[in-house]
Amino acid sequence: MRVRLIFSLKNKGAYLPFHHQYILAQFLKGLIVKGGREEFFNYNYFNFSGLKGQTKVSRSGLHYYSSLVTLVLSSPNEEFIDYLLEQVFETPKIELGNLIISPEYTEQEFEPTLEASNKFVCISPLVLLTPSFNDESGKRFINPDTDEFSDLLYESTLTRMERSGWYSQEQMESFYKFQAVPDMNYVNKLREQQKKFARIYSVYDMDVKYEVRGYTLPFTLYAAPEVQDFVFKCGLGAFTHKGFGMLDLANHAPSQRTEPYKFKREGFIPYKSQQDRGKTPPSETEENQDGN
């Protein structure tokens, strides 16, 4: 399931670093530990977007100017989502970098019907390689139109699916068809405009800082529907539980596919209708940036 967590922004104009997934990852990890349920301390089958809202770019980072900002959370485990949301709503004032935000309400996205081929866009950077300590290999650039690009995504996806224990051996053996085909027209257009689709990002694992290369580009994935569903809910590539590799369907109107979400905490309803508030939250694909 995928839910949108909408916050009110208390200090318009405040900023986050352009690459802020590690800040969100540390915040969510703190909430997971704070709740005290040890079965979730090392749970990795979830994914989240960057913080979305109306922004402007400066040398400091992304300055947020909208009244509401949105974080998209995704996991096949509804109990985990509810647990995490409960911790969020027990924290009325949240500081992320220079931003001060407060949780307002949640929405659930309707689950799309995924086919054997789907065109996706990356709403958080896609990481191919997991580096080791004192190793620069995670920053290596891999051309998106090479077999290596698709093969690395295939290997990481099938490894995670097997470790989950959700699929039989017969199912795993049937998932051999897998190919990620980037939209090279988009990539070449960015290159002509001297814009980047691949950047270096910081990620922290066991208190160790790593630098990895992340890719943000549209691509078509050819794979079994079960594989499509897994990457849509759990992310694609490496460090998905740290906010990398979140996908959304291309050409899919985000404002028309949500409903109120009331998670299963007795007597607690973290939802206010948009009509009641008179505001529309930014979706995962609705982020305005001046510059690149």
Automatic annotation (TrEMBL):
A GO MF label: RNA binding
Keyword RNA-binding in record: yes
Location of the CRISPR associated protein Cas6 C-terminal domain: 117-249
Top-rank taxon: Bacteria
UniProt xrefs under InterPro entries: Cas_Cas6_C, CRISPR-assoc_prot_Cas6, CRISPR-assoc_prot_Cas6_N_sf
Any Pfam family: Cas_Cas6_C
CDD domains: Cas6_I-like (cd21140)
Similarity comment: family membership: Belongs to the CRISPR-associated protein Cas6/Cse3/CasE family.
Record NCBIfam families: cas_cas6
Protein name, UniProt field: CRISPR associated protein Cas6 C-terminal domain-containing protein
Species whose genome carries this gene: Indibacter alkaliphilus (strain CCUG 57479 / KCTC 22604 / LW1)
